[in-house]
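Working notes for the structural subgroup meeting. M.R. asked for a predicted model of this chain before we commit to crystallization trials. I am recording the input and output together here so anyone reviewing the notebook later can reproduce the run.

Input as submitted:
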Amino acid sequence: MDFDRVLLIDKPDAMTSFGVVARVRRKLSQEAGKKIKVGHCGTLDPFATGLLIIVTGKECRNAGQYSKLDKVYEATLELGKTSTTGDPEGELTAVSDIVPTPEAISEALKGLTGEIEQIPPIFSAIKVNGERAYKHARAGREIVMQPRPVTIFSLELIDYTYPFVTIRTHVSSGTYIRTLAEDIGKALGSGAYLTQLRRTKIAEMKIDDAVPLEKYMQL
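Returned structure, recorded in token form:
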């Protein structure tokens, strides 16, 4: 059996990317009779689902070439509320009862397409003063996240039934969809946070070619 591979896994919700790695490592190590090195290339938040690139064995040396690729996501936003984390895991606050028109939403999406400056969320793995930003946030320490350039190659409206908006977006590596959702809410004056997120493509690798984690564990 080849233990030096690239695996495409469809991550379930309510699980960390590290949790996926741990399960794959346990399975392969049992099959090999020795510990197999396993890593992932691009974190998905616990509430998110979809394409996760897993590298095993000697292929871990090439992890860097998979982590900086552009990505495609499908996301659902709830308007009228904000979240302390930008997603369902945070504390929600109702901020507006504005009901934007579909035209206003399309215009907001158009305004956020292209090269933009994005401020990463404080609940992220970016290091600030030598420590992960989310650790500062959980400790109640105030930190300033610096804006950085990202590219939104495309941003399209898939469905809109107030207060929920579903979009599909093709973005450069390093783009935070939680922040994009918040920026859409700001542009509309309504506030917004992510309720669902699914990664469907990384470069030319597609979710259709991925194996659901539970199915992989049974192989």
